[in-house]
Structures are given as C-alpha cells and as structure tokens.
Design brief:
This protein has 9 helices and no strands. With 151 residues, it is mostly helical.
Length: 151
C-alpha cells in the first residue's frame, strides 16, 4: 500500500496516457482505494481545469476509432456507452467526428480484404451499417476487381 497517496497525482498520471471519461477516472481511482469524497474533489478540480470533459472525450474517442482503428459508428457508440458516457455526449461527439471523416474510404479499405459474400458480415463486425455509403463502396470494389461474379 502507498504511504503518500495523492489522488490528484494518480488521476493526472492516468490522464497523461490518454483522455478518459469521468466514470472511467472515478472507477480507476476507486480501484486505487480512494474514498468517494477524495475522488469527487479530484473530479471537481479536473473539471474546473477542463481536464475532464465527456463531450470532448466522446468526440476524440469517436474520431480516433474511425480514423485509426477503423471502427464504425455502431461499435463506437457501444464502446462509449460501456465507458458510461451520456447518450447525448455520445451522439454529439459521433456526429462531429462523422462530419469530419469520410467513412467511404475506410469501408472500402476494410472490404478490400474480404470475400464478396462476406461483405455485410464484415461491415457489421466493424460496426458499420449496410447503407448507401456501404453499397457505393461495395460497388466500387467489385468494379475494380472486374470479376463478373462479384458484381
């Protein structure tokens, strides 16, 4: 057990590696043995300094998940929900990220490695819907491949 426990330093150490949701930070501090009062004081301090902001967290999580991890909106929404981010913040963050990111090339990249008969399954597994954007991506890939059985 630590002799000099400092919940603020532990919270800052956690935030140093990546942004976290308020719930996630509370959970991690609770795991370290801090009381609810200590945790609330740290949360209030970090919120006042804009180190914790679930709306910004949701946007950055969605943006990184789309661009770096190639996850679709369904999967991102699910993961943010599991991190206890408020539904409104999830929708706002996802909406903003989707306005900035063109998902068609992401879908095309994911599908290029797949068999045509598994396109829908692959889309769903990555968290994308089978919508007009996905249909356009599928059409482009099948035309590029030039194989009649895939058109």
């Amino acid at each position: 057990m630590k002799i000099n426990k400092d919940p603020l330093n532990d919270a800052l150490r956690l935030l140093k590696t990546r942004l976290r949701s308020e719930w996630e930070l509370r959970y991690r501090l609770k795991e370290k043995g801090y009381s609810d009062e200590e945790i609330q004081k740290v949360i209030d301090t970090l919120k006042s300094k804009n180190f914790i902001d679930d709306k910004r967290f949701a946007y950055l999580y969605a943006y990184d998940s789309l661009t770096l991890k190639k996850k679709g909106p369904i999967k991102i929404r699910y993961e943010l929900h599991n991190l206890k981010v408020d539904g409104w913040n999830i929708e706002e963050g996802l909406k903003k990220a989707l306005e900035e990111v063109d998902i068609k090339p992401i879908i095309e990249n994911i599908l290029k490695k797949s068999e045509p008969k598994k396109f829908r399954e692959v889309l769903y597994r990555h968290g994308f819907e089978y919508d007009s954007i996905a249909k356009e991506a599928i059409e482009k890939i099948t035309n590029e491949r030039g194989d009649e059985e895939w058109n």
